[in-house]
Amino acid sequence: MAKFTLNVNGKQHEVDVDPQMPLLWVLRDELQLVGTKYGCGVAQCGACTIHLDDTAIRSCSLPVSAVGQRKVTTIEGISEKGDHPVQLAWREVDVAQCGYCQAGR
């Protein structure tokens, strides 16, 4: 176990976790930010995508020890009111978790 201070959605969070724990599980289990989803577990489907300093990253394959001082933004962090165009579009078309296992149109 090790202590990490993470900047998530503009707030500082301290966690005491295994350094190899994927960021996905830190977000979901330690910080209760469940908007970031588990999909495939191998960084292919995109359900676990977060922004790390404005770059899209698959959080299921990123150990928390690799985050450092970079800013983490989850779906909850793009708009406090839930009115960001991405959030609105997902609700409007009733998007499933990620679409990885669904046939295209």
Q: What does this protein look like?
A:
Residues 2-78 form the 2Fe-2S ferredoxin-type domain. Keywords: 2Fe-2S, Iron, Iron-sulfur, Metal-binding, Oxidoreductase. GO terms for molecular function: 2 iron, 2 sulfur cluster binding; metal ion binding; oxidoreductase activity. Pfam families: Fer2, Fer2_2. This is Isoquinoline 1-oxidoreductase subunit alpha. With 105 residues, this protein is of the alpha+beta class. The chain has a single domain (2-92), classed as Ubiquitin-like (UB roll). It has two helices and five strands; from the N terminus they run ββαβββα. Strands 2-1-5-3-4 form a five-stranded mixed sheet, covered by helices on one side. A hairpin with a 2-residue loop joins β3 and β4. The chain is globular, with a radius of gyration of 14 Å. The model has no long low-confidence stretch (mean pLDDT 89).
Helix fraction, binned, reads: 10-25%
Q: What form results from the Cα inertia axes?
A: globular
Q: Describe the biggest sheet?
A: 5 strands, mixed
The radius of gyration computed from the alpha-carbon positions, rounded to a whole number of angstroms, is 14 Å
CATH evolutionary superfamily: Beta-grasp domain
Could you spell the SSE succession in H and E letters? EEHEEEH
CATH class category: Alpha Beta
> How many helices does DSSP assign?
2
- Structural class, by secondary structure, is alpha+beta
Task: Report how far apart the termini are.
Answer: 45 Å
Number of strands: 5
